[in-house]
Amino acid sequence: MKERGLLLVISGPSGAGKGTICKALMENNTMWLSVSATTRQPRNGELPGKNYFFISHEEFQARIEKGDFLEYAEVYGNYYGTPKSNVIDILETGKDVILEIDIQGALKVKDAFPEGIFIFILPPSMEELKQRIINRGSETPESLMTRFMSAYKEINFVSKYNYAVVNDTVEAAAKKIESIVIAERCRVDRLKDTLINKEELTHGKLYD
Amino acid sequence: MKERGLLLVISGPSGAGKGTICKALMENNTMWLSVSATTRQPRNGELPGKNYFFISHEEFQARIEKGDFLEYAEVYGNYYGTPKSNVIDILETGKDVILEIDIQGALKVKDAFPEGIFIFILPPSMEELKQRIINRGSETPESLMTRFMSAYKEINFVSKYNYAVVNDTVEAAAKKIESIVIAERCRVDRLKDTLINKEELTHGKLYD
Predict the structure, then answer these.
(1) Guanylate kinase-like domain: which residues (chains A, B) (predicted)?
(2) Chain B environment of A180 (Cβ under 8 Å)
(3) Fewer CB near the last or first residue (10 Å), C or N of chain A?
(4) Where are the beta strands (DSSP E) in B45-186?
C-alpha cells in the first residue's frame, strides 16, 4: 500500500509571507500546489489549471451540491473554491499537497479535512507586518489600515492551527515546514489510522 | 524569557538501536543525555555523573519520598532512577534533554512528565531485531528467545507514544528525530502554554 500524501494548509494573515514560503517549498520538494477553481474570467497571462481552473457558474454550483469543495467563497459575484477531488487524487499517489489559503478558508478546510496539517505563518513582528503591507504599494492609507487591523485580529486564530511558524527568513520558515512534514509522518496518531494497528502488530503483519 | 528545553524520551524494545541513535543525536546537537542515579556499586571504568550518579540506598529512598524521580525501579536489590531535578535544571537553561529508557520506564515518565516527547524506536523488521539481539552474543539460546518474545510483545506499546521512528539507518533515524524536535517547537499546543496566549496576542505583547 502506498502511503497517502499529506495536505499542508499554509495560512496566516495577509502580508505574513505565505506565498513566498510556498514557492520555496515547491522548489525544494516534490509537493503539489493545490489549484483553486473559480467562475471569474481569466486575466492576462493566467493559465487554466495553473493559476486557476476556470469553470462556469453552473458547474461550480453543481460541484458545491456534490460536496466537491474543501471550501469555497463568493467574492463580488464570483465563486472561488478548493476542489476536493483534485486534492484527494494527488494525495492518493503519495504526493503531498500544499494549500495556500487565507484564515477563513483554512478554518473551513479544517472542518472538511481535519487530517490536514494546519500551519499558521506569523510575521516576525507586527512592525514587519505593517511594512510588508505598505511595501505592496497598491493600497490607500485607509485600506492599508483596514488590512493591518484585520491581520492583527486574525493572529488570534493561531490557536485553531496545529503549528505556528514565524517567517523570520523564507529559508528558515521553509526548513521548519519540511521538518513538520517529516515529523508528521512519524506521528503515532497518524500511523494508527494507516499502517500500525494492534491487530497487525500482534500477528506480526507489519513486519512481514 | 528563555524558551524551555524539550525532554526527548527515546524508548523501544531491546535491540531496536536506541543507544546508537542517542549517540548520533548527541554528536550533532547540543543535547544533554539524562544520567540515571543508582544505588549499585560503580563498575570498572564507570564515571560518577557520566555513567550514573552513584548514591546511597538512604539517599535514594529519601529522594523517592520527595518525589524526585521521573521513574525508578528496583532490580536485584539495587535502585535505578531518573532524577527529576537534574532534568528540570537543564531544561530551564533552554537545552533539550535526551532520556534513553526502556518501555516500562518511559510509561512511568509519561505519567510524571506528560509534556515530554515520547519517541518509540522500531527495528526495521522483526528479523533484523532478532539478528541484533543475537549479535550481542552474550545470551544463552533461552534468554535470547525470551528477549526476542519480550521485544515482540513490547512493540504493541507504540500506541502510547507520540512518534514512531523506524531505525533503518542510524543517520536517517537521527535526522527524523531532529525534525521532530524542530516541529515540536512550532506546535501550537506547546506554544499555547508558554509564549502565545490570547491575552498577550490581543495586547500585542508577543510582538513588542
Answers:
(1) 5-182
(2) 179, 182-183, 186
(3) N
(4) 52-54, 69-75, 78-83, 96-100, 117-122, 163-166
- Segments of chain B assigned E as strands: 7-11, 31-33, 36-38, 52-54, 69-75, 78-83, 96-100, 117-122, 163-166
A9 by DSSP, 3-state: which? Answer: strand
Q: Is B81 within 8 Å of B36 (Cβ atoms)? A: yes
pTM (predicted TM-score): 0.85
For residues A36 and A80, the answer to whether their CB atoms sit within 8 Å is yes
B158 has a chain A CB within 8 A of its CB: yes
Contact predicate A5/A97, CB 8 Å: yes
A93 part of contact set with chain B, CB < 8 Å: no
CA distance A163 to A174: 13
**B159–A188 CB contact, under 8 Å:** yes
CB–CB of A127 and B178 under 8 A? no
Q: What is the CA radius of gyration of chain A?
A: 19
For chain A, the farthest-separated pair of C-alpha atoms sits apart, in whole angstroms, at 67
Return d(Cα A112, Cα A108) in angstroms, integer: 6
Relative to beta strand B96-100, strand B31-33 is: parallel
How far is the C-alpha of B41 from the C-alpha of B80, rounded, in Å? Answer: 12
Question: Are the C-beta atoms of residues B122 and B166 closer than 8 Å to each other?
Answer: yes
Tens digit of each residue's pLDDT, chain A (208 residues): 578 999 999 999 888 899 999 999 999 888 999 999 999 999 999 999 999 999 999 999 999 999 999 999 999 999 999 999 999 999 999 999 999 999 999 999 999 999 999 999 998 887 777 787 778 776 787 888 887 888 788 888 999 999 999 999 999 999 999 999 999 999 998 876 554 444 444 444 444 3
Architecture of domain B7-34+96-207 in this structure: 3-Layer(aba) Sandwich (3.40)
Helix locations, B29-67, DSSP H? 57-65
